[in-house]
From TrEMBL:
PANTHER family: ACETYLORNITHINE DEACETYLASE, PEPTIDASE M20. This is M20/M25/M40 family metallo-hydrolase. Residues 219-317 form the Peptidase M20 dimerisation domain. It comes from Flagellimonas abyssi. Keywords: Hydrolase, Metal-binding, Signal. InterPro entries: Bact_exopeptidase_dim_dom, Peptidase_M20, Peptidase_M20_dimer, Peptidase_M20A. The keyword Signal applies. It holds the Pfam family Peptidase_M20. Residues 1-21 form the signal peptide. Gene3D superfamilies: 3.30.70.360, Zn peptidases.
Length: 429
């Protein structure tokens, strides 16, 4: 895997999670312009427009195969069949469930260029994912995030094959697993840490409108705190150590310490108690209490520091509670349920420059930013990677009323993905 030196990274001006627009070097604008004038590229663009209805049907087909967290297999099979029918040189599903199509290049050079969208959605088993049409608008959970990205990959692959496009470098076209929530980027972690594949750059499709480009990963650490006690009757066992009471103390101490830290002179760092649970009834002392905590930071150092604050706060809270005069004691366990690394790539990197230049070609102002996406893994390793939007209009992501409208920008989003891919992989002469 070809890596850049993380020491080069970076001095961006930040505005929220979006970095200010960066200058595009002329050589990359000219490179993109030359590509768009190639006959086969123009044909591929026309093919993408002509197969819009089929791309929409592919989107519906994929959406209606629910892919809950850790249960992406069925959708993976449908996506694999689409890849096979569109035409790849080889096709396989790896150990963790990533569906991978290889399209061979002509140069024989080592190093793959990967393009992916994620298979999983946030919705649990049993969710109704039937697509409903309201005019030209499609409504269903997961219709945009990120099923639209999968349909884009199929359209792009078909256009390349029908127009006779050949790339210099080998392409990996991937439906990845584990992007959402507790999936913890397990698909990308396997690809870059265990698969043995020599990947030298990555392009992810998982965002909103054209113009948004992620070249930075927002890191996070997530824990489940599990507190246990003997449990008993609220009256008969009154005074017995209560896991819920201990949990409340842990939340209080952590919140105070974390708030003081995040309010200091540091780059944006956040913390959140997202879920709590436990207990059996209102008149029972619970035998178990738990909470799930999410911590995020731009700077990896800050992420490590707030993780330490969390662990120390929990230890202090449990020790203090057990010494408070209660009968018996509670015990606790910290279970790590998420670990996404932070990282940033410089705007001067060729892949980032090519992505900005291609975006500008479609009349959009490129806006660099950060997010928690599949590119967190390669970016943290210094491997060139970007995440681009799926275009069109949409809303309600991660909700039951999610919707997507494939307008003119929808075709351009596929053309953009193709253009970036060709610029990075090289168009074979």
């Amino acid at each position: 895997m070809k890596q850049i030196t993380l020491g080069l990274v970076l001095t961006f001006a930040l505005f929220g999670n979006t970095m200010m627009a960066q200058e595009i070097e002329k050589k990359y604008s000219k490179e993109v312009e030359r590509l768009t004038k190639k006959k086969e590229v123009g044909q591929a663009f026309d093919i993408i427009r002509s197969q819009k209805d089929q791309t929409t049907q592919d989107l519906i087909t994929l959406t209606e195969v629910l892919a809950p967290p850790f249960m992406e297999d069925e959708r993976g099979k449908v996506f694999a069949k689409m890849l096979e029918e569109a035409g790849v040189d080889s096709l396989w599903t790896d150990k963790v469930g990533n569906v991978i199509g290889l399209r061979k290049g002509t140069s024989g050079e080592p190093g793959y260029v990967g393009v992916d969208a994620h298979l999983d959605v946030v919705f649990p088993e049993g969710t109704d994912v039937t697509v409903k049409k309201v005019g030209d608008t499609l409504k269903a959970p997961g219709i945009g995030d990120d099923t639209r990205g999968l349909a884009m990959l199929i359209s792009m692959l078909k256009a390349m094959n029908k127009s006779g496009i050949k790339t210099e470098k080998d392409l990996l076209i991937v439906g990845s697993v584990g992007e959402e929530g507790l999936g913890d980027l397990r698909g990308m972690k396997y690809m870059f840490n265990e698969s043995g594949l020599d990947i030298d750059s990555w392009i992810a499709i998982d965002g909103g409108s054209l113009g948004r480009i992620s070249n930075a990963g927002l890191g996070s650490k997530r824990y489940k705190l599990l507190i246990k006690g003997k449990g008993g009757h609220s009256w008969g066992a009154f005074g017995l150590a209560n896991p819920h009471h201990a949990l409340g103390k842990a939340i209080d101490i952590f919140s105070k310490n974390a708030w003081e830290y995040t309010s200091g002179d540091i780059t944006k760092t956040s913390f959140n108690v997202g879920r709590i649970g436990g207990g059996t009834s209102v008149n029972s002392i619970p035998f178990e209490s738990w909470m799930e905590v999410d911590m995020r930071a731009i700077d990896p150092k800050n992420l490590d520091e707030i993780e330490i604050i969390f662990k120390e706060s929990v230890k202090k809270a449990i020790t203090a509670y057990n010494a408070s005069g209660v009968r018996g004691r509670v015990t606790y366990e910290l279970i790590k349920i998420g670990d996404r690394p932070s990282g940033e790539l410089p705007a001067s990197l060729p892949l980032v420059q090519r992505t900005m230049a291609a975006t500008k070609f479609f009349g959009e102002t490129p806006r660099l930013g950060r997010g928690s996406t599949n590119i967190n893994i390669p970016v943290a390793k210094g491997i060139p990677a970007v995440c681009i939007g799926r275009g069109g209009q949409g809303g309600g992501a991660h909700s039951l009323h999610e919707w997507y409208l494939n307008d003119e920008e929808g075709d351009e989003s596929i053309q953009l993905a193709l253009l970036i891919t060709l610029a990075q992989a090289g168009l074979s002469k």
